[in-house]
Recover the amino acids of this structure.
């Protein structure tokens, strides 16, 4: 199936720990002890109605490798939206950052991994409308304020959803206007469903006009993602578009319209069987599965990024297990401390031997301190292993 890129203006932690070790190792082609590695790219979100352990499981996959799943609460919230994408004939995908290393756990080497999806709150995954078929959709980027939207407030109030916020597809078009000095300027108008709803500032217009002209020369309109908010008293709008210097060269060649049309909203969608057992499923370590399945979900969903409209799904809460990077850094620091103590022990022992027939008192003190640092290095190493 064709990929459907979900709105990525948010953040959501997924469950990976202690269960998908084999698959995560395959993604990296192997991991080194104590060395943190990072993978970034699109991952597929696959509902598994035939999962024998939980029929509401949403797995997260990189190619054929199932490297995690959504926590139970998150799977419940996202399930109907992902089902809509799949029933429409697409595979829902979102950007993923996966970090992993190998650390010593209870005396054994185990993969330690964490992963985070860039994905918006469920009610902001899809736009309220679709872009024109003859439009090239700009990549998403930081928010840009739309100006003068209050002039079109009456129409925009009819667009704002009941929740007070929604995602929309807007088009940008160049227009000539006369300023209060009598000068004629090229300004970018912002349109929703072919009706003007605002405009960009003069500075922003100057940046985007060459992009709009390029698309127009290839018989394409220029479409962008946007966010609309409103109440009974006011309405506001922003666009989320990559600045011209951030747009990849292939966009100008392909001019993609990558927002496929979905089935209309419905209470239920048919989701095909999709369960693929991970290596751990074949023997099913119950302790590990329970730990992953009951992992706490992120508290609230949101859009992220500069000037974003809502905060991230979940900031790191107090008491949460340290990240992979933090644990790897801690491991390296402890190892360095152990080696430093051992080096000091050997140095003191050598000095003690040198002064043995010259200054017996100095020699004795060196031997005493050497014994103390030796025991200390053993203690630190023992506590480090126990702490993992």
């Amino acid at each position: 199936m064709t990929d459907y890129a979900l709105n990525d203006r948010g953040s959501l932690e997924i469950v990976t720990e202690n269960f998908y070790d084999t698959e995560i190792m395959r993604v990296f082609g192997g991991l080194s002890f104590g060395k943190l590695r990072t993978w970034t790219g699109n991952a597929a979100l696959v509902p598994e109605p035939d999962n024998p352990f939980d029929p509401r499981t949403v797995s997260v996959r990189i190619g054929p490798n199932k490297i995690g799943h959504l926590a139970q609460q998150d799977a419940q919230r996202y399930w109907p939206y992902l089902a809509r994408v799949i029933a429409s004939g697409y595979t829902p995908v979102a950007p993923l950052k996966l970090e992993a290393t190998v650390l010593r756990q209870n005396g054994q080497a185990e993969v330690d991994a964490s992963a985070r999806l860039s994905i918006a709150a469920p009610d902001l995954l899809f736009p309220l409308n679709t872009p024109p078929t003859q439009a090239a959709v700009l990549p998403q980027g930081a928010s840009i304020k739309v100006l003068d939207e209050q002039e079109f407030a009456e129409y925009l109030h009819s667009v704002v959803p009941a929740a007070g916020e929604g995602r929309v597809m807007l088009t940008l078009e160049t227009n000539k206007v006369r300023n209060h000095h009598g000068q004629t300027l090229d300004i970018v108008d912002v349109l929703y469903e072919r009706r003007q709803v605002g405009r960009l500032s003069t500075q922003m217009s100057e940046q985007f006009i060459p992009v709009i002209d390029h698309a127009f020369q290839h018989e394409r309109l220029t479409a962008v993602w946007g966010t609309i908010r409103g109440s009974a008293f006011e309405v506001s709008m922003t666009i989320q578009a990559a600045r011209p210097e951030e747009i990849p060269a292939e966009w100008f060649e392909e001019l993609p319209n990558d927002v496929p049309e979905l089935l209309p909203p419905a209470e239920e969608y048919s989701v095909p069987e999709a369960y693929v057992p991970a290596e751990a499923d074949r023997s099913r370590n119950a302790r590990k599965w329970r730990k992953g399945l009951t992992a706490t979900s992120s508290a609230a969903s949101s859009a992220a990024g500069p000037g974003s409209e809502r905060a991230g799904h979940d900031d790191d809460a107090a008491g949460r297990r340290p990240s992979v990077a933090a644990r790897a850094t801690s491991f390296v620091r402890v190892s360095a401390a152990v080696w430093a103590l051992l080096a000091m022990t050997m140095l003191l022992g050598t000095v003690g031997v040198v002064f043995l027939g010259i200054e017996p008192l100095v020699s004795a003190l060196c031997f005493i301190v050497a014994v103390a640092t030796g025991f200390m290095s053993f203690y630190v190493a023992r506590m480090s292993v126990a702490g993992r």
